[in-house]
Design brief:
- There is one protein chain.
- It contains four helices and twelve strands; from the N terminus they run αααββββββββββββα.
- With 305 residues, it is an alpha+beta fold.
- A six-stranded antiparallel β-barrel has the order 1-2-5-4-3-12. A six-stranded antiparallel beta sheet has the order 8-7-6-9-10-11, with no helix packed on it.
- It is rod-shaped.
Length: 305
């Protein structure tokens, strides 16, 4: 206890002495800096030249803090610019998608204008209004109908490949049954082997090929065109290519782009036989009655003479 009391007796006057010296020094510095005299000015300049250069270590934290603040502001500006670039990139992506759609639409229109078909065939182009595809029915509506001379059974193309046939005609619209529909049966010819077959829709993107004469002569990648059998479709219309599924069954990889059906070309086949009744598909043409005389031929007329 006595030692603690003695240390306190020495510490308190020492603190007071140091505080008084510090106050005197500060007061002296203040007075020196306030004296307006050339000699004192030179003295101040000498002190500044001697002290300030050696005080860089003391200014390092301040300089670092200022640099950090500047870097933060720079990063903030970079972040804002990055956000702006991202917004512009999203806009450019949307514009690119629109440009691609326009390019594809333009390509389809060029295809519709440039595809060479049978000169006896004329066509009218319609716009796809609605897609009524379902697990049980594959069809679309187009904006041409009886007012445009559309007839049931006419073939439709997307400019490259066969899409389907007209099945149901209204005054202003028509329904197109797609090749993928289960009610679709298209007689085709496989080139170059010349094999005849049927492309039967099964509500899949690649309908199977049935009733093939000789499957050994058919290879994957062979061209499939309409054969014209039954006078249902004009011959030579491109259907697609032969492909094999994992089970080994032959299927038709359709040439038409069913994912982007926007325009369809309806072929006016004025030379095709129109089916007005289902029995006309199987019954032969009417023969003259047995009681009626047969028309005379040139040969018979010459003999009578």
């Amino acid at each position: 206890m006595a030692q603690d009391r003695q240390s306190d007796d020495f510490t308190t006057p020492l603190k007071r002495l140091l505080l008084a010296i510090l106050v005197l020094c500060l007061l002296g510095i203040f007075l020196v800096w306030r004296i307006d005299s050339p000699r004192v000015e030179r003295f101040r300049a000498q002190v500044i030249d001697a002290v300030v250069p050696s005080m860089d270590w003391a200014m390092a934290p301040v300089t670092g803090a200022v640099n950090i603040l500047r870097d933060f502001q720079s990063y903030q500006r970079i972040h804002e610019q990055n956000q702006e670039l991202r917004r512009e990139l999203r806009q450019m992506t949307a514009w690119k998608e629109a440009a691609l759609q326009l390019e594809q639409e333009n390509a389809r229109l060029r295809d519709l204008n440039n595809v060479q078909l049978d000169p006896r065939l004329t066509y009218i182009t319609g716009v796809v209004l609605a897609d009524s595809g379902s697990p049980f029915r594959q069809s679309v509506l187009i904006n041409v109908g009886s007012r445009d001379g559309i007839v049931d059974g006419w073939a439709t193309m997307d400019g490259i490949g066969l899409v389907g046939r007209i099945s149901g005609v209204g005054k202003q619209t028509s329904r197109v049954i797609l090749l993928t529909d289960t009610t679709s049966r298209i007689p085709v010819e496989i080139q170059p082997s010349g094999q005849r077959a049927l492309v039967a829709g099964d509500n899949t993107a690649a309908p199977p090929i049935d009733f093939l004469e000789d499957p050994d002569q058919v290879r994957a990648g062979d061209r499939i065109v309409t054969s014209g059998d039954g006078e249902v479709f004009p011959p030579g219309l491109l259907v697609g290519q032969v492909a094999k599924d994992p089970g080994g069954r032959l299927r038709a990889r359709l040439a038409a782009d069913y994912e982007r059906l926007e325009f369809l070309r309806v072929l006016r086949d004025h030379g095709a036989r129109r089916v007005s009744s289902p029995s006309a598909l199987i019954l032969p043409e009417e023969l003259p009655d047995a009681g009626e005389p047969l028309p005379a031929t040139d040969e018979g007329a010459g003999g009578d003479g």
